[in-house]
Each structure stands twice: as structure tokens, then as C-alpha cells.
Design a protein that fits this description.
It is a single chain. The protein has 361 residues and is an alpha/beta fold. The chain folds into two domains: 222 residues, Type I PLP-dependent aspartate aminotransferase-like (Major domain) (Aspartate Aminotransferase, domain 2, 3-Layer(aba) Sandwich), CATH 3.40.640.10; 128 residues, Aspartate Aminotransferase, domain 1. 39% of the residues lie in helices and 13% in strands. It has 14 helices and twelve strands. Helix 3 links the parallel strand 2 and strand 3. Bound molecules: pyridoxal-5'-phosphate. Pyridoxal-5'-phosphate binds next to helix 2 and helix 3.
């Protein structure tokens, strides 16, 4: 606030450079934006995806993943998840590839990296772009490679609930610097120079509008938060990992289904800890369970109802929940427990006690 510069400027540049270094990239390979939704939209545009194209993605994701595909005029094509990983099933992808398919958009669900070797092999053989939705996966790695650096583009969210937050915010990573300069331009109205450079000490510089862009820029106020968030990313990850493992130990004897342990070749982002409440096994439905947790003052969430459950996609794309049975079943049973690094040990034990009691009733 005291610097006198609130818009896109030196702090955004510093945050970009620090995020790039965190990912082992050069500053020319990243661009900060104001959400992951914007990051996905601009990545699809920069990949040349347009009207009539198809993009393959997962049904178990936040609506922004599919909406970004629709906003460039393309059609999202769903491939069901592998129920063990809850990520897109690589063995099913090729069945959905057509002459119109232009990209694969995997989501590293809950922070567990997708099967990227298989996905990149398919993309290479079919000449498809790979855009990684890394909204849950800031800290995740796959066989030593950082999430967001394996595909052509990686998209990150700094929304309030995410592992690193700027309140609202996002980042695009790209293997090549050229699409990043396009993303940068499209994030600020399609203008050739950003405002910070326009009003620099060297004097006023004219800008030109060279394509039809958007208002997707991150501002220095957001980046100033992000710089400090990034400094504690490892500490917060360690804490969430400890809470995740405590839940895993404490809840394993209950009739709920706990997440699988991450395999040794990945580093899990520990963004979500999700239980499956199967009414036949647990004696109560997921929604009744959620009500009991709420009654104990414990905030729980659903990540996610499968995309084909939503009326918009049913009406406009003809999707039906039976099209992706694994995602639909999980969407109807899943519940996410609190996983904030700010939870105390006592609070974690209180969550565990409430889960045990809800199931005992
Ligand atoms: C949060 C989220 C998004 C959207 O992020 P915003 O920064 O809120 O636009 C996209 N995809 C997934 C998987 C998410 O969880």
C-alpha cells in the first residue's frame, strides 16, 4: 500500500520470478493472472484451441476446468476417472480421441499427480497439447518433475482455499516463452505494453491493441501476499501432510473409505483429505454425515459432484451422470475434512472424534 503502486507492477514481477524459481523455470516461462480460470482460458487460447475443437478432461473437477474449454468455443470431452486415484484414467483416453481432439486437460485431483508418463505419451503420438490443471498441486511432483512443468502449460490457482493464496489469483507456466508473452498480452486487453511499463521512469510509451484480450492481470496487492505465502509453502505442506497422515491412521478402522496412500514416485500436494461415505456400509448417507459434522461446528466440503450432475452441461452438452459412473459415484459419496495448516492438534482430534461419533450414531 505504501509503495503507491497497487496495480500490475514490480511485486507481480517479483512473485512471478520467485514462483518460476520454485518450479525450476525461467521468469519468461511464467505469467501471473487473476485466477486459475483465467490461466486455463488463456492457456487454451495460446495453444490455438478454437471453435469446433475437442479437449479431453476429467469429470471429477471444479466447473472452471470445463468452462474454460467452452469459453474458447471448444467442446469438453469427458474421460472417466480411475477410482483408485480419482484422476483421469489414462487407459480410457485414446477411446475418446477423434480428428477434432486438440488437447488433453488433466487435473491433479486433491494434489495427487496424474499418470503423466502415459498422458504425455498419448499426447505425443496424437500431436495434442497438454494443459495441466494444477489448482490442487502447487507442491506436487511426479517422478521428480514439478506439476505444471510436464505438459505444454500448467495452470495454478491462488484462490482463498488453495495451498498458496493471494485471495484471488492464478499463474500460467509454459515450456516455451512465446506463448507466455501471448498470455501476458491477452491478460491485459491484448495491449502491447503493460501499464507499469507505460508509465515508467523513461517516460510515457504508447501501447497498441494487437488482439482482443481480457482483463485478467494480477495486481501488486495480490502478489505482495503471494510472495509471503510462497515463503511458507514447505512449512504449510509439512503440516498438511502430518494432518493427512493423522486422519489416515485414526480413521482407517471405520467403515468409511480413506484415500489410497500416494505411490512412491510422486509427491502428493495434500490439498484435500477426502472420505467416501457409502450409505450401505456406513448406515448414513454422505449428506446426513455432513449435517452431523456441521452440527459439531466442523466445516466440510464436497469435491466434487461430477460435472454431468449439473443442469447446464446436461442441457447444453447432453451429458448424463451415467456417462462417467466412477466420477458420479465418488461425487455422491465424497466429503472433504478440514486440512488447513492452521489447525491445531486439538482441533484435528476434535474432527476425528466428530467423524467417529457421526458414524457410531
Ligand atoms: C479452484 C479450482 C479452479 C479455479 O481456480 P480459480 O483461481 O478460482 O479460478 C480450477 N480447477 C480446479 C481443479 C480448482 O480446484
Amino acid at each position: 500500500m505504501q509503495s503507491g503502486w497497487l496495480g500490475t507492477g514490480p511485486r507481480v514481477a517479483a512473485f512471478e520470478a520467485q514462483f518460476a524459481a520454485f518450479k525450476g523455470l525461467a521468469p519468461e516461462q511464467v505469467a501471473a493472472v487473476n485466477s486459475c480460470s483465467a490461466a486455463l482460458h488463456l492457456s487454451l487460447l495460446a495453444a490455438g484451441i478454437e471453435q469446433g475443437d475437442e479437449v479431453i478432461t476429467t469429470p471429477l473437477t471444479f466447473c472452471a476446468t470445463a468452462n474454460a474449454i467452452l469459453h474458447v468455443g471448444a467442446t469438453p470431452v469427458l474421460v472417466d476417472i480411475d477410482p483408485l486415484t480419482m484422476n483421469i484414467d489414462p487407459a480410457e483416453i485414446e477411446k475418446k480421441i477423434t480428428s477434432r481432439t486438440k488437447a488433453l486437460l488433466p487435473v491433479h485431483f486433491a494434489g495427487l499427480p496424474c499418470a503423466m508418463d502415459e498422458i504425455i505419451d498419448i499426447a505425443t503420438r496424437h500431436r495434442l497439447n497438454v494443459i495441466e490443471d494444477c489448482a490442487h498441486a502447487v507442491e506436487a511432483t511426479y517422478r521428480g518433475r514439478a506439476a505444471g512443468t510436464m505438459g505444454d502449460f500448467g495452470c495454478f490457482s491462488f484462490y482463498a482455499t488453495k495451498n498458496v493464496t493471494t485471495g484471488e489469483g492464478g499463474m500460467v507456466l509454459a515450456r516455451d516463452p512465446e506463448p507466455i508473452s501471448r498470455v501476458r498480452r491477452m491478460a491485459l486487453h491484448g495491449m502491447t505494453r503493460d501499464a507499469w511499463k507505460r508509465f515508467s521512469a523513461d517516460g510515457y510509451k504508447h501501447y497498441q491493441v494487437v488482439e482482443l484480450g481480457f482483463k485478467y492481470n494480477m495486481m501488486d496487492l495480490q502478489a505482495a501476499i503471494g510472495i509471503h505465502q510462497l515463503k511458507r509453502v514447505e512449512r504449510a505442506w509439512e503440516r498438511r501432510k502430518a494432518i493427512w497422515q493423522r486422519y489416515q491412521t485414526a480413521l482407517s478402522g471405520l467403515p468409511v473409505i480413506c484415500p489410497n496412500e500416494p505411490p512412491v514416485h510422486v509427491r502428493h500436494g495434500y490439498h484435500l483429505y477426502t472420505l467416501l461415505i457409502d450409505e450401505a456400509r456406513c448406515g448414513i448417507s454422505r449428506d446426513v454425515f455432513m449435517g452431523q459434522m456441521a452440527a459439531q461446528g466442523i466445516g466440510v466440503g464436497v469435491h466434487y459432484l461430477a460435472l454431468p450432475e449439473h443442469p447446464y452441461y446436461q442441457q447444453h452438452l447432453g451429458w448424463h451422470p451415467d456417462d462417467t459412473p466412477y466420477a458420479t459415484a465418488i461425487g455422491r459419496q465424497t466429503v472433504s475434512l478440514p486440512l488447513s495448516p492452521g489447525l491445531t492438534d486439538d482441533e484435528v482430534e476434535r474432527v476425528i472424534k466428530a467423524v467417529v461419533e457421526a458414524l457410531a450414531n
